[in-house]
# Entry
Amino acid sequence: MKNAKTYLPVPSADGTKAERSEAAAVAASHPDPEVVARAKRRIFTGEYKQRVLAEADEAKGESGGIGALLRREGLYSSHLSTWRHERAAGIRHALTPQKRGPKSKRSPLDEENQKLRRQNQQLSEELRKAEIVIDIQKKVAALLGRPLCTDREPQL
# Structure
């Protein structure tokens, strides 16, 4: 009988024996299968790659040595083959991680200049708005017959 459930006695909080299915007991012992919301890309340093390649070269003589190394380090065999090609090409900087994506075509000075121009534009706009508010306050004060005090004259 494939679908037959076996019930195991489990003590409950009030001391009586409750029954729980074996499937529920097995499910309770497994870790939570929820996947992390955003995976993080692994970055391997050049020293790490060289160390793993050296260990892989030593493990070639043993049966299952490379597989054990890959499991222990959490790597794939494609990592080893790619790193071996890079090592064979003799390019040291190829083993170091490179920044992904397109390279910036602007110089840092141009970017800073552009940032300062935008900031200057925003500050000019804020100053214009402040001057409009001050002008309106002056007009309202003149209509109400209460002139605004200046910094030179104290208001009584």
Q: What stands out?
A: The longest strand covers residues 7-11. Strands lie at 7-11, 17-21. Residues 108-144 form the longest helix (37 residues). The chain has six helices and two strands.
